[in-house]
Amino acid sequence: MTQQNKLIFAVVMGITLLSSAVFLFLQYQCILPSNSSRCVATTIEVAVPPALLKWAQQAAQDFNAQGQNQVKIRSLKGTEARRQLNLSTAHLPDAWLAEATFARQVAGNIPFPLTGATMAQDWLTWVVKPENADLAAQLNWKTVHDTAKNDGQFNIAIPAANSVECIAACLSAAAEYHGTATLDRNLITDGAFRRWFDELLEAIPDRQKNPRDQLAIGVQVGLLLNSESTALKQQNFMTVPPIYNVVLNYPYFIRTAWPELANNEDIKAHQQVAEDFKNFLLSSTQQAKLGIYGLEQATATPNGQFIEPNEQIVEGLQWCWQ
Q: Residues with Cβ < 8 Å from 52, sequence gap 6 or more?
């Protein structure tokens, strides 16, 4: 090969290598939405409940390391969704990961679909101290109520008022009182049930505190999320599932309207990144990390009798959980 040919070959190879490097750099820096014709670097915000906050933050950090599209996480209680997720509110999140499907139902007219894919699962469990082992053998709402009524020193704790977890507790209590997982408005507004539950509330020292915190300061029995019970020192407590339980299925809802975005390509980009992050949360790697926080994976099959409430039932129980 002549010196001139060697020079030409070197120039061609240099251009080829440079082109490949530029292509790979751009591919990493700019991820095209599958339904877009132009490159859009997009940042979205996802609202998640406090129970999933640490898991979602770590997942967002992992997701953000993969490319230029970014996810920011913010905390949102499901009982605040109606007020914070309507179109009159500025800075709406692009996706909302709620505690349960019924949390979306009671949120009313907000720009999110009524159903979403399950991301994780959790449910309620009774927690009792070993010195009350005789109670643990038959632990349920009725025995807790009767014990509290007959012993003024007996204290209990349930999820904090005005939370989705408290809605679940009220549903569990109503189902057990009436002996059925199929509730209706007449059952949940029944005067006898309301008086019975009010008697039980008298044994709760502070309805605004997490039951896990109250168990640490002398409360004998608590009803809390299973994920929270795993954080307790297991040798100090016994756990018993309620007769009628409620699954928190943590559905993921992608926003349906972006009036603040005039460009349709920008809307598609936000939708696509929200969809990509949903799929990322459902990946085997991220699902496996749920166990670190005491949560069950999206595909878990819970055992027991479970209540499936609708909007009317939850709203009819406002006297209980607010």
A: 97, 119, 120, 250, 293, 295
